[in-house]
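User: My collaborator sent over this chain with a note saying "see what the structure looks like." That's all I know about it. Can you take a look?
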Amino acid sequence: MTSPADDMRMGGEFELNPASFCLPADQPLPTLPSAFSYWTDTGRSALLLAARDILGRGGKPVVWLPAFCCQSVSQPFGQAGFTLRYYNAAELHGEEDSPPNPQPGESVLFVHYFGHRNERRLAQVPAWEQAGIYIVEDAAQAALTKGVGAFGHYAITSVRKFLPQPDGALIGSRHALELTLADPDEAFVSAKAVAKLVRGAHARPEDFLPLIEFAESRLDHSAIVPKRLSWLSHQLMLRADFAWVAARRRLNCQSLSYAVSTELRSNVTALIQGLSDVEAPLGLAIRVSGGRRDALRGFLAEHSVFCPIHWLLPHVPQAQALAADHRLASEVLTLPIDQRMNDRHIRRLIELLHQFFTES
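Assistant: Without extra context I'll predict from the sequence alone. Here is the result:
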């Protein structure tokens, strides 16, 4: 039986419900608007495939990456032998821009953050392309946002961030890729699937978190070997209502954003303002000033609201040009708005935010 606490749990790993397999398998798999799309297991595998193809086409082994980005973006380029150069994410923190300065034959990657189109970097694409720069469009956080993935020479998404499937990422390219993909990592897929099933049965965190940590450690501490999409994830995607997922996320985000911009504006600020009807948000990223971010995260976790941090930046140099990115990394918190939540969850989350800032 579901307890009230279970019913109001928000965020965290997606549950896997066996009843999902009773749904008709009639949904088309997502694609990218690029000329060619290929499925693989993870976003980092997709990036490694792009990096290798760039080198195979005579590109220089130098890539410009946004400083405000997950270490899993740096990992595949490092494994491919690229020199990593970082530029700051002025489109997020609004402080002085230190734009990327790639030379002909080098590469630049930009991110569509939290499901929003990155209009600032999209405006730079024509100049980069004219200069002979290889462009990688990272839409891992915008897998359900329409229109992304059409601007770079390569594009990647990661649908496992939006759905309960254990794996699944797309790489898009303007030209056909010759890919050699390994078999799925069944230990990873099985650990994730069991953890999702156990979490869905309202088990204690100590019963499923070790499985999640085991699975993710296989990604973080092993060389990347691009693999085929697993059978389990393929079957789940055939039964997923992507349009409904995107619409529910937009509705939840709009409701929570309104509260943040009105009744909570003296305590937190939304990192990205506004939401178009083609954007499907990953979460509502907020800035929590005054050194209270970690305390807020802990308070919400005590009340069964699990908020990720996007991202810690131990891999990014402590350069003056990147100071604003490190400052942002110490303040940002991503509030959940996913499709498991409804209006009652959003009201509860707003109440908890009020409670924290009233009592702290």
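A starting point for your reply to your collaborator: The CA atoms of residues 3 and 166 lie 26 Å apart.
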